[in-house]
Amino acid sequence: MRRIAVLTGLNLLLLLLAVDTVYATPPGVRFRHIDTNGDGGTDINLVVRQLSFTPARAHVGDTIRIDVILEDMAEGYKTIPARILANGKKVAGGLFTFGAGKGDRLYKETYFWDTRGAAPGQYRIRADYFIWEDSSPFDNEMEVRQPLILVPAGEAFPDGQPAGGTATETDPRFRKSRLDS
Domains, the chain, ranges and CATH? Predict the structure, then answer.
């Protein structure tokens, strides 16, 4: 007589939690689960360290370059959605994959926002790399304090300023010297 084990949802979940996880990775690379925080899960800690955009003063129809520097400070391997928001509306983004090796890795991501069809005005630019499993989710997003000034094509900028400029926000805990390494 054969015995068939039937796993209920809770039993299956407990079984999955007890098994060492091997993550799907690029060919030839294997990562094993490392429990550094003692909770039985992988420690994921992704931090948005710097956000900048250029030009900071532009005309409707110009393309805005947005650069994001991220730091992966733990051992998780994951692909997550990345969003660039202007006044809360997604204007750029894609998928972002991190965790190709052990902690302390820097990534620089570049996005472009084609402002054709955007309304003139001031825009708050925000980078959002939300991930549920992050051990410190408060630092998965950043907003530049200086707004993007967008005026109709051919019009002058407020206070007679020229087009151009760059606006940058940097996490004060970030060692800027790491950008050169």
Answer: 46-171 (2.60.40.10)
